[in-house]
Design goal:
The protein folds into 2 domains: 28-188 and 231-422, 3-Layer(aba) Sandwich (Alkaline Phosphatase, subunit A), CATH 3.40.720; 430-500, Arylsulfatase, C-terminal domain (2-Layer Sandwich), CATH 3.30.1120. Helices cover 23% and strands 17% of the residues. It is built from 9 helices and 18 strands. The protein has a 10-stranded mixed β-sheet with strand order 6-5-4-3-11-1-12-13-2-14, with helices on both faces. A hairpin with a 2-residue loop joins strand 16 (432-436) and strand 17 (439-442). The protein is globular and about 65 Å long. 51% of the residues are buried. Mean pLDDT is 92; it is low at 1-25.
Length: 501
């Protein structure tokens, strides 16, 4: 009898061990999206950067898929974020760059990558820059703000509410201001000056870095911002502390959910203006604050990847590294980004940058990394961030998002199992462009003006049709619309069909 009991105990132990191993094998993979802000196509060492080194991101590229024709959906931040999370082009919702007190622009009755992850049993978090609006308008920053990330699928959120150059200059954790003193309430106004905090245009002697008129309102931490703010002194952020604060929050989330599947949308403030890197990164590049912010961004990636490895999670985690739009040098603060650029070209061989309809507006560095699953590959597949909605939903489990005609399944491309890519892709800026393989059509915009010429930026807008053959003209220098009227007409018609479907 005793031997029989021992045998039963032994068999039960084996069965339990087998069950644990089987559960580990079938556990849905963790997913981390590193979403950098304003990082250009060639701003990384693995894409040819000069004057700055990025060893941590380069390591991901050396051991993963490095895409050469991957795109944000738009040439500016809010539209790209909206499209990535919802799988819908931003123009369908008139989503554009938002002020710091805008209402939430994501439909709480719709689906997001985060809500799909939750439906599949994932724990979900967004950490970093949000800039998708909060509340329903007329925000009271002294109470919990709703709707917000929780209402669109995120279990946990730690936010820079809009951008670093906009008030309010406070963190939100689970949609409440961190460290707020009720006796010092926050007031925000984007239309008129509020008494209390100093203003850059009136107190230039208080500034760490000079700014243009748009960014010359309320001063917090020696930096003037867009918009006016009073109160909340105990809650004000310190820009130099962004990397340490955000990394710690991300590491806490990963540690707390290491035994379950998680989705983390890590949304950098770097390398957006104001570029105020931590002192330990100052001087670590040859390009001044912008280059130092790239080094800081690379360190951040390294810290989170190291934690995955220490916890033994790296082999069950898909990491996607990308940017919300193309590069910009002068974007409101006089930080010598243009003067110190040297031989570095943030856009590589492509024309334009942030805001632009030309390729550098949306063609961004993109890397996928998953040790043991993804093999090293340089991929020329044309892909768009709008497709992450469908593709990641498929990876996460059976409760995939309901179909969205804008978002295609590119999971095989993300995993390096195919280099086919998309046939058609919309690029959004001040207006719309359409890619078909290496043909690029930019539709005319009535009343087009050189809106950003004063900042040496090209919008790419024109009064007439534009057609470029990127195969032999990646810099989009020769408009061949008149030489190829059939192709111009075909792409113009296709763009109209895609917009109106």
């Amino acid at each position: 009898m005793k031997n029989a009991r021992l045998l039963l105990f032994f068999l039960a132990s084996l069965l339990g061990l087998f069950s644990c191993e089987k559960a580990e094998e079938t556990k849905a993979p963790n997913i981390i999206i590193f979403y950098v802000d304003d990082l250009g196509y060639a701003d990384l060492g693995c894409y040819g950067a000069k004057g700055v080194t990025t060893p941590n991101v380069d390591r991901l590229a050396s051991n993963g898929v490095r895409f050469t024709d991957a795109h944000s959906t738009a040439a500016t931040c809010t539209p790209s974020r909206y499209s990535l999370l919802t799988g819908s082009y931003a123009f369908r919702n008139d989503a554009s760059i938002l002020p710091g007190d805008a209402p939430l622009i994501i439909d709480t009755n719709g689906e997001t990558i985060a809500s799909a992850a939750k439906a599949n049993g994932y724990s979900t978090a967004v950490i970093g820059k949000w800039h998708l609006g909060l509340g329903k308008g007329a925000i009271d920053w002294n109470k919990r703000i709703s709707p917000g990330p929780a209402e669109v699928g995120f279990d946990y959120s730690f936010l820079i509410p809009a951008t670093g150059d906009r008030v309010p200059c406070v963190y939100l954790e689970n949609q409440q201001v961190v460290g707020l003193d009720p006796e010092d309430p926050i007031t925000v106004d984007y239309n008129k000056k509020i008494e209390g905090l100093p203003v850059g245009s009136e107190n230039p002697e208080l500034l760490k870095v000079k700014a243009d008129a748009q960014h010359n309102n309320t001063i917090v931490n020696g930096i003037s911002r867009i918009g006016f703010m009073s109160g909340g002194s105990s809650a004000h952020w310190v820009d130099e502390e962004f990397p340490d604060v955000l990394v710690q929050k991300a590491q806490n989330f990963i540690e707390n959910h290491k035994d379950s599947s998680f989705f983390l949308f890590f949304s950098f403030h770097d390398i957006h203006v104001p570029r105020i890197p931590h002192p330990r990164f100052v001087g670590k590049s040859e390009m001044g604050p912008r280059g130092d912010a790239i080094v800081q961004m690379d360190w951040t990636v390294g810290q989170i990847i190291s934690q995955l490895e220490k916890l033994g999670l790296d082999k069950n985690t898909l990491v996607i590294f990308t940017s919300d739009n193309g590069p910009v040098l002068d974007d409101g603060y006089m930080d010598q980004a243009k003067e110190l650029i040297g031989d570095h070209d943030p856009a590589g061989s492509f024309r334009g940058g942030k805001y632009s309809a030309f390729e550098a507006g949306t063609r961004v560095p993109t890397i996928t990394y998953w040790p043991g699953r993804i093999k090293p590959l340089k991929s020329d597949a044309m892909i768009s961030q709008v497709d992450l909605f469908t593709s990641l939903g498929k990876l996460m489990g059976p409760a995939s998002p309901k179909g969205n005609p804008d978002s295609e399944d590119i999971l095989k491309e993300l995993l390096g199992e195919s280099t086919t890519g998309k046939t058609y892709m919309i690029e959004e800026s001040f207006d719309l462009a359409l890619r078909k393989e290496n043909w690029k059509y930019i539709r005319p915009k009535p009343g087009a003006v050189a809106y950003l010429e004063s900042k040496d930026m090209e919008t790419g807008m024109s009064e007439t049709d534009q057609l470029y053959n990127l195969s032999d003209d990646p810099g989009e220098t020769k408009n061949v619309a008149e030489q190829y009227p059939e192709i111009t007409a075909e792409l113009k018609k296709k763009l109209e069909e895609m917009v109106n479907r």
